[in-house]
Write a structure and sequence with these properties.
Length: 293
C-alpha cells in the first residue's frame, strides 16, 4: 500500500504555483481528473502531494482576437467545442473536439489536461499542431510560451518542469481561404481514442495551385508528426491526387509507429498514407470539419 497523498485545493494561480515550487516533483496536478484517475489507480502516477486545479478562479475563457483563438487551460473540452469563438475561428478544432471520447468525458476533461497528458493517441494535438498552436506556461517567477511541437517531447512526456503549470493554449487563426479537416480512424469502439488521426489544411492560390499546406498525424509517432520541409515543397504544385499521394508517402516513410492494442506498427503505417490523401482531398474542398474515417 502506498502512503496517502496530501490533497491541496488552491483558489488562486499564485497559490497553486507556490505549492508546485515548494513540493517540486513530489507534487502532481489534477484538473478534470479523467486521465489522472486512471493513471493513479493503475499506479502509473506517484505523488506525495496532489494539487487540484479545479478550485482556481478563471482560466476557463475561450476568446478570439484578430490573430488567435485563446483557450484557458481549465476550459472544459465540451465548452471549447461549443464556444462561438471556436466554431467561428477554428471550425476544424471545434469539430475535432466533438470526436473526443463521449459527452460525459468532454464535460469534465480540460483542454490543459488534454495537452499536458501528452497521449500520442489524443485527437486535439493533431489539429493544434497543424495550426502551430502555442502553449502558455506559468511558474512562480513568470512564464514562457512554447510551441506545441516543443511542448510535446515524447510518449506521455512534455517539456514542463515540475513547478510549471499550463495556463492556456493560443491557436493562430487561418485566413478564410484555407480549408481543413480532421480524420479520426477508430479500430475499436466508437468512443475510443484514435488509432491514426490526420489533420490537414490547404490554401489555394488564385492560379489554382497550392499556396500552403499543413499536415499533422497523431497515433503514428510519439508526438504529432509534422514535416515542414515536405509541406514547403508542396507549395506551387497542383493539388492533384498524385501530389497528395507523394506527400502522404513522405509522411508514411517518416513515421515510426508504436504497436499497441489499437493497431500494429505496420497496420498504422499502411493506413496512414491513404488517410492523408483523403484528408487532403477534403481540405482542398474546404469541408472545415472533422469526421470518423
Ligand atoms: C473513457 C475515455 C475516453 C477518452 N477518449 C479520448 C479521445 O477519443 N480523444 C482524446 O483526445 N482524448 C480522449 N480521452 C482523454 C481525455 O481527453 C483526457 O483524459 C483529458 O483531456 C485530460 O484532461 P483532464 O482535465 O481530465 O486532465 P487530468 O486527468 O486532470 O490530467 C491529465 C494530466 O495532465 C496534467 N495536467 C492537467 N492539467 C494541467 C495543467 N493545466 N498544467 C500542467 N499539467 C496539467 C496532470 O498532472 C495529468 O498528468 C479519453 C479519456 C477517457 C477517460
Amino acid at each position: 500500500m502506498r502512503a496517502p497523498a496530501a490533497m491541496h485545493r488552491p483558489e488562486t494561480l499564485e497559490e497553486l504555483l507556490a505549492i508546485l515550487r515548494e513540493h517540486g516533483d513530489s507534487a502532481k496536478i489534477v484538473a478534470g481528473g479523467t486521465a489522472f484517475t486512471i493513471l493513479w489507480k493503475a499506479g502509473l502516477l506517484q505523488a506525495e502531494h496532489i494539487v487540484s486545479a479545479t478550485g482556481l478562479h478563471g482560466l476557463t475563457d475561450v476568446r478570439a482576437d484578430d490573430e488567435a483563438l485563446t483557450v484557458g487551460a481549465l476550459a472544459r473540452v465540451r465548452d471549447v467545442e461549443r464556444a462561438e469563438a471556436t466554431r467561428r475561428n477554428s471550425p476544424v478544432l471545434a469539430s475535432a473536439l466533438r470526436l473526443v471520447a463521449n459527452v460525459r468525458v468532454r464535460n469534465v476533461a480540460t483542454m490543459g489536461g488534454n495537452v499536458a497528458e501528452a497521449d500520442y493517441t489524443s485527437d486535439p494535438p493533431a489539429v493544434l499542431s497543424a495550426l502551430d498552436a502555442v502553449v502558455t506556461i506559468r511558474d512562480k517567477d513568470g512564464g514562457r510560451d512554447l510551441p506545441l511541437r516543443e511542448f510535446l517531447v515524447d510518449y506521455f512526456e512534455t517539456a514542463l518542469r515540475p513547478d510549471e503549470f499550463v495556463t492556456g493554449v493560443r491557436i493562430p487563426i487561418l485566413a478564410a481561404d484555407w480549408g481543413g479537416t480532421y480524420l479520426k480512424l477508430l479500430s475499436r469502439s466508437a468512443e475510443d481514442r484514435t488509432c491514426i488521426g490526420v489533420a490537414a489544411f490547404l490554401q489555394h492560390a488564385t492560379d489554382g495551385t497550392c499556396a500552403g499546406v499543413r499536415v499533422a498525424v497523431v497515433g503514428g509517432n510519439p508526438v504529432p508528426l509534422r514535416l515542414p520541409e515536405v509541406e514547403r515543397q508542396f507549395v506551387g504544385q497542383e493539388p492533384s491526387m498524385e501530389a497528395f499521394a507523394a506527400l502522404a508517402a513522405e509522411y508514411a516513410a517518416a513515421a515510426d509507429p508504436v504497436a499497441d492494442n489499437r493497431g500494429t506498427a505496420s497496420y498504422r503505417r499502411r493506413v496512414m498514407a491513404p488517410l492523408i490523401v483523403r484528408a487532403l482531398r477534403r481540405a482542398a474542398r474546404g469541408t472545415n470539419d472533422a469526421v470518423f474515417a
